[in-house]
Amino acid sequence: MNVLILGGDGYLGWPTAMRFASNGHQVTVVDNYLKRTLAKQNKSQALIPTPDLLERARIFQSLTNHQIDVIIEDCTNPTALNEIVQRCRPEVLIHYAEQPSGPYSMRGFEEAQVTFNNNIHTTFNVIWSVIKHAPDCHIIKLGTMGEYGTPNIDIEEGWIDIHHRGRTDKFLYPRQGATLYHTTKIMDTDLLWFYVRTYGLKVTDLMQGPVYGLITEESLLDDRLLTNFHYDDLFGTVLNRFIVQAVAGIPLTLYGSGGQTRGFLNIKDTLQCLELAAAQPVERGDLRILNQFTEQFSVRQLAEQVRTAARSSGYQTEIQTIKNPRKEMDSHYFNAAHQGLLDMGLKPHLLTTEIISEMISVIAKYQDRIDHSKVMPRFSYS
Ligand SMILES: NC(=O)c1ccc[n+]([C@@H]2O[C@H](COP(=O)([O-])OP(=O)(O)OC[C@H]3O[C@@H](n4cnc5c(N)ncnc54)[C@H](O)[C@@H]3O)[C@@H](O)[C@H]2O)c1
């Protein structure tokens, strides 16, 4: 397949590019280094120094003979994205190119504006470039489980049947994000659904939970192919942060009681899900929504699992509770469906002591680069 990946320098984009190229697909990646820029501005640089995208593609090709074409461009520029889509004529377009941090989006006006403008415009431009130049292209868009929020009822996969005053209809499941970032993802879904209904686009919207891990088949070839791994308060997802804290000897910090429950998945399973979604496209006029996670945990349960694994690897890890810097419920009902990807063939890599220990051993190599001042919350919006 001819695959165009937007956001190909990112935590998920780069491993996805290597995986699709390894599987023999023709891969083009686009990125404008927004994440690297924001990370630098906020003193939130990734733990592991990674070469730029052109250099990574060169290293990958020298080791595997698989080519990844790189375009450094801003997807909020409609002219540029139109030209790229017109030139590539992708059969699959994977859209990762967004500002993905909830806390960053809540920091202040400028951060909110960057998040809002970037995320809405990249999605809008994707839609129009596909309508104009590749109407049969299957758009695979990364949404987030955070679009649903934490409702006091079971979460379905994207849709819900509503019975109202004796009549029934099917609607997008009600969504209520806890941050502006999550709200932009809700707006993305609404935009996609509108254009699916009116222009017959083919879209899969993957409602993904927080991802953990950094090891993939391809990264094992050379550490320079590892992904951009963030562990700070703004850009680090919770399990990645806990593992860095364990290695650095910093207590694992629970925000409030640590009762926040979410659906998590290993980065290896993100890659599987993308492969499955791409291999099983939808028809024109279909919006398929899949909840992309493999296991539900509370943050406290995660911390306890990391403590157990870290102790077995020789780290004296403690758990500490701090005031929640975020506005969110830390004790709530959470029960989300996630059958669709399993039915499509997903074979989950579940969280085990061995998986955590494997991550600890990679992170330990970069222990000297851990900046303790970045791990604890640097601002609050509670
Ligand atoms: N990582 C997770 O745990 C997680 C969970 C749920 C959903 N997601 C979603 O998955 C997607 C990828 O997340 P990630 O963790 O890889 O984030 P990331 O920030 O590491 O990757 C996104 C990439 O897109 C690029 N980008 C952003 N705006 C761009 C633009 N205008 N033009 C070109 N490139 C642009 C960034 O520079 C970055 O390299 C995001 O949409 C995110 O919302 C991620």
UniProtKB/TrEMBL annotation:
Its annotated pathway? Bacterial outer membrane biogenesis; LPS O-antigen biosynthesis
- Record domain NAD-dependent epimerase/dehydratase: where: 3-285
Signal sequence residues = none
What the entry lists under InterPro entries is as follows: Epimerase_deHydtase, NAD(P)-bd_dom_sf
Q: Which domain of life does the UniProt lineage start with?
A: Bacteria
Similarity field = Belongs to the NAD(P)-dependent epimerase/dehydratase family.
> Which protein are we looking at?
UDP-sulfoquinovose synthase
